[in-house]
Structure formats: structure tokens, C-alpha cells
Amino acid sequence: MAIRVRKPGLLTTVQDEGRIGDYAIGMPPSGAMDRFSYRVGNYLVGNEDGAAGLELTYFGPELEFTGDTVVALTGAVIPPKLNGEECPVWESFAVKSGDVLTFDYLRDGARSYLSVAGGIDVPEFLGSRSTYTLIGLGGFEGRAVTEGDELPVGKADGPSKAGLKLDEELVPSYGSEAEIRVIVGLASYRLTEEALEQFLSVEWTVTPDANRVGYRFRGGELSFVEREQPAGAGSDPANVVDFGYPVGSIQVPGGVEPIALLNDAVTGGGYATIGTIISPDLDRLAQTKTNDKVRFRSVSLDEALAARRERRERLGEIKASLNGDG
After folding, report:
1. What span, in angstroms and rounded, lies between the C-alpha atoms of 217 and 262?
2. How far apart are CA 270 and CA 236, in angstroms?
3. pTM confidence score
């Protein structure tokens, strides 16, 4: 079977866990921006870990199914309708051949995930089906889906069951304000003490430049420690000698509009990165949108590891519960 794209939505791409292990050759991971929502979607439809689904950004597509299957929608609230009738979110439901799935306007969050039993069966590139739109690799022909595309769906790994749902108390809500935890470091020494305090105290606003590559924030201007630039660094006080950029690292070109580098960003460069968003909070950042407010809070490495462990355990419990093992 396949999913026929009647309307593409604003940005609908095939994503999975991402292209892990090729960072050293300059290949960012891509993959689902909100891993929690993506993974729970796969649990709900009975897929193995890593199955590819669709990431819907801001405005959903119009999709026609060419066979019977089970699907689930997780993440942002972009209310879905099946043949014009409202259908659930964070819960698996059956679709039949010829059914049409549409979406209302975004109500909360930024990105929703459509999981389908068997997963989206596009070819792998470097071990992943994720779309890296910046250079046209992976996913469906290396791009966001467009009208007329037919997205192949794989064979389900086992019986899929409609009506599986995430406990309501575990369903995240997003709102328009987010606290994002960061580990300060890498090149934070380039900021003055006052500027670092300002970075952590300012309420930043997400600008329209917010996408899978990075998010820009507006709200203050940060000053740098004066110095004679070393050999190999550029003339901007935010420049350092080139080094690697972890996913979630935050750079401040010119001291204005910090940029959080995300799943499709370059893997290295010559701007000072003053901190890195901890991995569980990348999910939350992915659900912010233009004009939302963000505050950054400094945490220790131990706190970051504890948060990552907590998320891993929570996902494990959800998976076991939905599989009937909990």
C-alpha cells in the first residue's frame, strides 16, 4: 500500500531516528526533531524501533490511503480528521483504502508525527530514511513531500491494534513558553560574566528563522571578552578557531540573536558556542514556534545525564505498557 499526497502541508518530511555515526564526516543526523513524540507514535502502531514516519510542521497535509492500515498521530496538536470526522491523537486508529486524512489549524506545539504500521518504506541512505532537505538526501527523493507523491508503506512487523493510547497524564502540552536546560561551555569563555548572566536571565523570543537547521532567538545583545583574535579565527569577536558543533549547541554570531543548531545543521565551524541544550529538551524546543518565549537554565552534566536517563526509562515504561508487558 501507499500514502498518496493530495496536499503537502507546509513542510512534511520522512523522518526516523536519524543518521547516527557520520558526524565526523560532516553529516548531521537529521531525524525526528521531537524524538519522544516520534517514538511513542511507533509504539502505538506496533512498529519496531526506528521505523520511518512523517514529520508535519505547523500545517498538516491531505493524505489518501491506498490500503487498510493502522496509524497514530503524536506531538503537536494539529487536529486530524478522517473523511471529515475528528479522530484521536496519541491513540492508534484504523484507516481503510480510500480514506482521506486532513488537518485543522495548529493549536499547540509545532510538529506532529504520523506513524503508520510498517513505516514509510523509502530507501535508506547511510543507514537512515530521514530526509536531509538542505542537500537533498534521504527521505522521499531527498525533499519534502509534494502533491501527487505516493509514499510506500512497509509490511507491518506484527499485528497492529487500533485503540492503543498513551495515558493522558503522559501526553505533553506545550504552550507558548518553554524553559530549556543547557550545559554552559565549549566556548562560553568568550562571553563576559555579565553577558553569560544575561543569556541565562533574558526571556528570548523565537524568531521566524526557526527550522530544522536551527532556531534564532531575539531579546538581548551579548558582549564578548576583548582579545586579539588568534591565528585561524575570524575577525568577529564571536569567532574562534574552527571546531565541532554538537547538536543543540548555541552560537551567538555578533553577540545578537543566539542560534540553536539542530538536526540538519552544519557539524562544525568558527563561531563560539556558549552552551549546549540537553538532549531531552531538544524535544521541547522542537515544539516551540515563532514568537514563543524561551528561557535557558544552566544545569550540570550530572543533571543532564539524569534527565536523559529519566526520559529513556519513561519511554521504556510506555513501550512496555503499550505492548502489554507493563
Report:
1. 14
2. 10
3. 0.95
